[in-house]
Amino acid sequence: MSELKISRRNFLKLGGAVAGASGLTLGSRRLKAMEQDLGGRDYSAVTGAERKAVPYTCLTCNIEDGGVAFVENGRIVKLEGNMDHPNTRGKLCAKGNSGWLHVYDPDRIMTPLMRTGKRGEGKWRRISYDEATSIVAKKLREVIDRSIREHDPGIRNEIVFKWGRNRTGGAIKRFMHALGSNSLVNHTNICESSKKVGLEPAWGPDIESCDWANTKYILNFGSNILEAAYFMNPNAQRCVDGVVGNKAKIVTFDVRMSNTAGWSDEWHAPYPGTDAAIALAMAHVIMNEGLYDDEFIRDWTNVTPEQLKAHLKPFTPEWAEKESGVSARDIRRIAREFATTKPATTFSYRGPCKHVYGSYQEAAIQMLNVITGNVETRGGYCLPRGMGWPQPEPVPPKPPVPSVIGAPPIYPLASHAVSTHAPYQVMAGEAKVSVWFAYYDNPVYTYPAAHVWERFLKDEKLVPFYVSFSPYMSETTELADLIIPDVTYLERHDPESMPGGLYPCLSIRQPVIQPLGGTQEFRQTLIDIIHKVDPDGSLGIKKYFAFKNPEEWMRAHFDNIPGLKEEGGWDFLKAKGVWPIYGKVDKETAKIVDRNGEEVQPDYQLHKRELSAAEMEGAEVGPDGVIRKDGHPIGVRIRGRNYVGFGTPSRRIELYKESYRKYGFNPLPTYKRLPSRNKKPDELVLTTYKVNVHTQSRTASIKYLAELYHKNPAWMNPKTAAARGLKDGDLIRITSPIGYMVTRVHVTEGIHPDVVAVSTACGHSAYGRLAQLKHKEKAAEWAQGGDPDITHNVWWDDKGVHPNSIIPVQVDPIGGSQGWYDTVVTVTKAQPGDKYGDVVADFEKAVKAYEHQLRYAYTGDLHRANHPEVDIDWDSLPKPEVKAGGH
Ligand SMILES: Nc1nc2c(c(=O)[nH]1)N[C@H]1C(S)=C(S)[C@@H](COP(=O)(O)OP(=O)(O)OC[C@H]3O[C@@H](n4cnc5c(=O)[nH]c(N)nc54)[C@H](O)[C@@H]3O)O[C@H]1N2
Ligand SMILES: Nc1nc2c(c(=O)[nH]1)N[C@H]1C(S)=C(S)[C@@H](COP(=O)(O)OP(=O)(O)OC[C@H]3O[C@@H](n4cnc5c(=O)[nH]c(N)nc54)[C@H](O)[C@@H]3O)O[C@H]1N2
Ligand SMILES: [Mo]
């Protein structure tokens, strides 16, 4: 039970202070009605009959909240949160609530399209799904036949699959591995891969799950918990539970006053890319002042307190103040507070990790939880709690030849690919493309040096055949040769499990209505393509796609899971949307409670689960305590007990990362001064950020959301503006090493004086009429059409300006992640002739910038220069294996 019981009414009041006054304005009668029924039912305003309710999993961003769709006369009329979902607890955000507009977007593509003009010219021939899948199968068969003829399985890597958001539960991997290609390229290096690579070698999983609700102290490094962030909705709810319900203190480090920073007890604006300096200095204080958890460090890490003290010696608060601008006094004070308030947890998202050397930043932040013994405690820094599901057998094996695009060899630690590099690798002849697939992917908008992607995808020599599965005419889709539109997330099947809280669960996506206008699920399209590539099964590919239809594919995932099977397997999930059901949402506390009204407690101390006698049978305990079976570590013996431990070779938390050392990086958390820290005084660092009502490139076409937020002036500190003679609303030019953009300035105290910040959801040059403010034009003939709001009721005339073409590629040599927040720019008044919305970017300069940043890779000269402290024989570093020309 939470220590402090507060009534739902108080809760709403306090919550209302956060979200605006909405909670307070509700009349008391309506409030009563809400209390009678928390959700799950809805009634027709016309007939009064109960509406059909179908559970689903949201995908308006990627947090996978549980939802229920209400359907009337075959049309989705309303969405709300699924009360059975333990992490979402019946709530959706603004994007989730307006998600049904994705279905009825008047500019949605309703039929497969074959290009008739030049790439990007917008001339299309409407074709059937059958014709479209036959065309693709023929192209794929050509590559496969050539690979067979030439006895070269590596040729199949010329089939490249690039995706952005992929919640297919392994469908794409199955498709590609069945075809024999390893050229799978995700978007994770523009998202948060350096966070993952900062964490995985240390404790196994790629993310933490904080026990926000039960904590007393939250140290937030660069995450916009209330507006964006991973698990935004569930994290924001539990963060409010903790801060409001449990009186936890929250301290936020952000270069900008995000709504989370503004809501925090303290906001500190560090110089960009210096979070690691602050975290290391805090660790220095905690170790030197004896505030650490000696037993936890000795038992559960691969270093000793003495080693840590020695390593942390140079990272004093005074040194960190010089690097970060945050005062040594504050750093000391917060370090002491964090170490002495129990339980406490850090949280971090993209602010620290989206820099060159972002992996070090993440590792330094994680260390604070480890040395204070807050790991896996109630109210602490916990392992994520996801749930797996089996892949239907047979599963295609991983193809034999590695792909240079799929795993660039000069980034051996970047376990989540380095997708920004793909076009440059192909342009340089390091890899070859025959067929390019794009799924949920919009690099011509969402990637750094976006204009390079445009040029690349337009080049028929480099990309001979290009297929997009998008239901929307995005900046990237409009360049395709063939579009085979997917359906929206409310019309298709997907398996899901997101560790959005401390209650692990499975959930699903299912068609809440039949796909509109004869459109077809991507999953069905994959089945059709494979059946046409290998019609008689003689290639050995067809057997991996022996699904009658997408629903049977889901059944194969879910019907044999112990526990779920007994409750009905897939059919249970269809009815409830989520499994298991932990209890009910309590009307007073909004917590999950059991039949007796007691809060359902999550499990803690997962690393201390003791191995059973059966698990120990045949196992050996090494002198280091590691318990191994068949050569694999399965646990660790500590003080005579056999624990399962963490997902590392030593089964302890590896603050010392051997894999980093192997490639000449510092094995212990450290700080590297970035070039952006050495900028000239009159230069600024460009930061980009997300806003609460938009998702990446995907929501500018959603009328409710576009009405709320459609322009993105650049934030600038008053001091910085004054030095340039700028006042709020002035037209400015932001110039980077590869181009410039012309926008307006928003002068605000809520930003570091050395930073200029531009949000990322606006300024489209495609994505339908509304996103481009071409709403007076008629809908295209391939489009759904039919929303008079868009032609008649749009009152705004500013669509914002998008910065991505002026941001160069620059990746973390460890995690391979794009350093979005490292771009040094100059900002001046706009120049004569400049027009609002101008974005001018140079191709050659972008390629040069790409080549320059390669020098940070472990094979490059800047790598050596930056790591004089690592005591290794540089010539003995393993060499990357690059095979030119396609493999
Ligand atoms: N509304 C909304 N929510 C989303 C998404 C969305 O598109 N819209 N997308 C989802 C996805 S894919 C992701 S990856 C997450 C991202 O979630 P977050 O990482 O929480 O959000 P971002 O806006 O990417 O960046 C976080 C903050 O980093 C700050 N920052 C920049 N540089 C620094 C720095 O050097 N130090 C510090 N301390 N802070 C810095 C920025 O000002 C920004 O406020 O959000 C998810 N949730
Ligand atoms: N400047 C800057 N840029 C950034 C970031 C930043 O911090 N700064 N952060 C980024 C982050 S965190 C992320 S995760 C990336 C995301 O970037 P992307 O992975 O490119 O993702 P989205 O914009 O979410 O969606 C891509 C495309 O999917 C297609 N699509 C939409 N709905 C569907 C559907 O139902 N089915 C199919 N098949 N396709 C669909 C649309 O064409 C859409 O344009 O962008 C990033 N871009
Ligand atoms: Mo992301």
From TrEMBL:
Q: Where do the coiled-coil regions begin and end?
A: none
UniProt keywords (A-Z) are:
4Fe-4S, Iron, Iron-sulfur, Metal-binding, Molybdenum, Oxidoreductase, Signal
Top-level taxon:
Bacteria
Q: Which residues form the 4Fe-4S Mo/W bis-MGD-type domain?
A: 51-107
Q: In its keyword annotation, does this UniProt entry include Heme?
A: no
Give the GO molecular function terms.
4 iron, 4 sulfur cluster binding; metal ion binding; molybdopterin cofactor binding; oxidoreductase activity
Pfam families of this UniProt entry?
A: Molybdop_Fe4S4, Molybdopterin, Molydop_binding, TAT_signal
* Essential cofactor(s): Mo-bis(molybdopterin guanine dinucleotide)
InterPro entries attached here? Answer: Asp_de-COase-like_dom_sf, MopB_CT_Tetrathionate, MoPterin_dinucl-bd_dom, Mopterin_OxRdtase, Mopterin_OxRdtase_4Fe-4S_dom, Prok_Mopterin_Oxidored, TAT_signal, TAT_signal_bac_arc
Q: Does the keyword Mitochondrion apply?
A: no
Q: Which family does it belong to?
A: Belongs to the prokaryotic molybdopterin-containing oxidoreductase family.
Record PANTHER family: TETRATHIONATE REDUCTASE SUBUNIT A, TRIMETHYLAMINE-N-OXIDE REDUCTASE
Q: What is the protein named?
A: Anaerobic selenocysteine-containing dehydrogenase
Taxonomic lineage: Bacteria, Pseudomonadati, Pseudomonadota, Gammaproteobacteria, Chromatiales
